[in-house]
Specification:
By secondary structure, the protein is an alpha/beta fold. It is 38% helix and 21% strand. The structure holds ligand C2E and magnesium ion (MG) (3 copies). The site of ligand C2E has 21 residues, from β4 and β8.
């Protein structure tokens, strides 16, 4: 096998490339099996509201329970998409997260907390997505207003017009919309008023420096102010320390997410008993794809 390099010379297929392909093919087969055997899990990471001292939402993050350990989303999410498993996995994520939030709400004191879901490029290009998601909410008896759909600019850019249609329909059905990872990629400000977003998530690459000696907060603050003018809620992602958190708070940030506030984990106690000791590991996280 040969492949054409950029300058149009033929390069030989090196043994190292062969290894990469081999590994990929194996991983693909394992991924299909994972779907069939229910090896996916969701972990939930809190987005804290410093203004009300409550959990604004929990973001559901996909995990793959493999024999050799737990794999985080960043290591396999692209493969899910490339293997055409996006829709199946995506709808499982939706249903599992809805059930989990219901179990958290069952306490009766936490009705304001939402669940935030990531959707991929293929999902946001799927014209049937809004209807499919609304149906799941209906079946699980959860108001779509409790679901935030997170989409990245990169995903929406694949086909901006189609993404607009899907986002508008999701909005019409009552879902909240978030623009994720803002600050990576183009960071086009026009997205913010062209699309019906409710929440903007500022990527950790823009919050990392805040509170550091000599670190700049100009970009983060600029985006915060503009978003506020446009009526959006802003989440600062990647909060890894107290100094950073305090600095962001002083700059006017209210919604914050990161390892310092809470790592993604399989379960959380209902927010009204948030001060209680260690959460149990039972509940929604144990559900499988066939559930
Ligand atoms: P994201 O939506 O921006 O999620 C944040 C990622 O950063 C997560 O990685 C999370 O574990 C990690 N993170 C959270 N707080 C901190 C922090 O303080 N410091 C650092 N360094 N990292 C932090 P994860 O779980 O590996 O997910 C990676 C990406 O995979 C996500 O980025 C999201 O785009 C995608 N993803 C995750 N779950 C799903 C899913 O169910 N469906 C789809 N389509 N994509 C998903
Ligand atoms: Mg996200
Ligand atoms: Mg993000
Ligand atoms: Mg990110």
């Amino acid at each position: 096998i040969a492949k054409r390099s950029k300058d149009r010379h033929i390069v030989l297929f090196e043994p190292s490339m062969h290894k990469v392909v081999e590994r990929r093919v194996a991983l693909e087969a394992e991924l299909r099996q994972a779907v069939a055997q229910g090896e996916f899990r969701l972990h939930y990471q809190p987005i804290q509201d410093a203004g009300t001292d409550s959990v604004f939402a929990y973001e559901a993050l996909l995990r793959w329970q493999r024999p050799d350990g737990l794999m985080t989303a960043k290591h396999f999410i692209d493969l899910v998409e490339e293997t055409g498993l996006t829709n199946e996995v995506g709808l499982w994520v939706m249903r599992t997260a809805c059930r989990w939030l219901k179990s958290i709400h069952a306490d009766g004191h936490a009705g304001a907390t939402k669940v935030s879901l990531n959707v991929s490029a293929a999902q946001i290009m799927n014209i049937n997505l809004p209807e499919q998601m609304a149906r799941i909410c209906q079946e699980e008896d959860l108001d779509p207003a409790h679901c935030i759909i997170e989409v990245t600019e990169q995903s929406a850019m694949v086909d901006p017009e189609r993404a607009a249609l899907v986002l508008q329909e999701l909005k019409r059905l009552g879902f909240s919309l978030a623009l994720d990872d803002f600050g990576t990629g183009h960071s086009s400000l026009s997205w913010l008023h062209q699309y019906p977003f409710d929440v903007l998530k500022i990527d950790r690459s823009l919050t990392a420096e805040v509170g550091q000696p000599g670190g700049s907060s100009k970009m983060a603050v600029g985006i915060l102010y503009l978003s506020q003018l446009l009526g959006l809620r802003v989440v600062a992602e990647g909060i890894e320390g107290q100094t950073q958190m305090d600095a962001l708070h002083r700059l006017g940030f209210r919604l914050m997410q990161g390892y310092h506030i809470g790592r993604p984990q399989p379960d959380w106690p209902a927010p009204s008993i948030m001060t209680a000791p260690a959460p149990s590991l039972s509940g929604g996280a144990g559900q499988t794809l066939s559930a």
